[in-house]
Design the sequence.
């Protein structure tokens, strides 16, 4: 077998090549020689414990050998290294079913289904873009699918999906430079990635196209609050509630700003608006009570 010989030759040249042991193990696994594959996967992981796919393939080999507890540990380690490894969830669920732990199996299968459905949606939107490369809407829908997919990921695993969404939003903007939805979407992703300068630029572009987009005013208000530019933040929040008087959080923020400036009556009015829209907002109730008690 040419692949087997090539991997063996690579390992003769570099005996510390973890990926080589993993790949040679995969060659044996495809032949059903799990007895040979398992030691090779184990050697790969001794050299590099962070090879998620080696843990996964090791888990599959353990199942084939009837070593269910070892398979459980391998799949759990796969997920610890790559929380987006869809197949690992499915096979971990099979381990739980074998153990008779149906509660754990159902929870794991639910995660598998959410991830696989979201990934299927991404792939469907990618195919749609391939057929409609000049459609801004096609790229908008692809970006939204990436964002939805990212929401099922955690920590470092979110970044790549969000960057894919950025590319899709940017392509929509290239095709339609006045596309409000694309600027809003891209700004939200930049904000998620903590890129305040680019998020702000996109929200400002939205307002240049349409000054009556409340969400852009809210987001810019939050940005200016973080920067300590209170007057600019206040102007954006005031504009937001002019556009949409039902923004409870905007009323609450304005209440805090007015209170900080010593404008007691305006603060009370804003807090009362916020509570009317969101009666269970404990922090706002507490702030209002403090003003009444003065």
Sequence:
């Amino acid at each position: 077998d040419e692949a087997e010989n090539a991997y063996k030759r690579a390992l003769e040249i570099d005996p510390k090549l973890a990926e080589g042991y993993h790949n040679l193990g995969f060659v044996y696994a495809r032949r059903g020689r799990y007895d040979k594959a398992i030691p090779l996967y184990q050697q790969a992981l001794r050299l590099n414990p962070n090879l998620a796919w080696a843990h996964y393939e090791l888990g599959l080999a353990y199942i084939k050998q009837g070593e269910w507890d070892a398979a459980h540990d391998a799949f759990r380690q796969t997920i610890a290294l790559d929380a987006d490894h869809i197949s690992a969830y499915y096979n971990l669920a099979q381990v739980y079913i074998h153990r008779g732990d149906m509660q754990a199996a159902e929870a794991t299968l639910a995660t598998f289904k959410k991830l696989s459905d979201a990934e299927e949606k991404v792939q469907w939107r990618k195919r749609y873009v391939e057929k409609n490369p000049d459609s801004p809407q096609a790229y908008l829908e692809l970006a939204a699918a990436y964002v939805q997919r990212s929401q099922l990921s955690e920590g470092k695993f979110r970044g790549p999906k969000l960057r894919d969404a950025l590319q899709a939003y940017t392509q929509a903007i290239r095709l339609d430079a006045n596309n409000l939805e694309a600027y809003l979407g891209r700004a939200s992703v930049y904000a998620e990635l903590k890129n305040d300068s680019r998020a702000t630029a996109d929200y400002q572009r939205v307002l240049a196209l349409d000054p009556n987009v409340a969400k852009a005013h809210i987001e810019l208000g939050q940005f200016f609050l973080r920067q300590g530019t209170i007057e600019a933040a206040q102007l954006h929040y005031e504009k937001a509630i002019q556009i949409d008087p039902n923004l409870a959080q905007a009323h609450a923020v304005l209440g805090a700003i007015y209170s900080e400036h010593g404008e007691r009556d305006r603060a009370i009015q804003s807090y009362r608006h916020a509570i009317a829209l969101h009666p269970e907002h404990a922090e706002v109730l507490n702030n209002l009570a403090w003003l009444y008690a003065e």
Remarks:
- The mean pLDDT is 94.
- The CA atoms of residues 63 and 185 lie 44 Å apart.
- The chain has 16 helices and no strands.
- The radius of gyration is 27 Å.
